Amino acid sequence: PNPTSGIINLSTAPVSNADIEVLDEAGRLIYKQSHENILSATIDLTSFSRGAYLLRVLGQSSTQLIKIIKN
User: Fold this and answer.
1) Closest by Cα among 6, 36, 24, 70 to 56
2) What is the mean pLDDT of residues 5-12?
């Protein structure tokens, strides 16, 4: 759910050689997971401060951006 208290369950179309990144409001990379093939992932933001974050899924041929609000 968005806003979230910390745990994000991500579902996506199949993506090969994907990176999942979380950026803070200043655009700094603060979290990264790399996957050879991905359909879903769980991202734990419970230790992060409240605020807005950008979740970025980078694949070989596509990029998805999702704004996340952490309570």
Assistant:
1) 24
2) 91
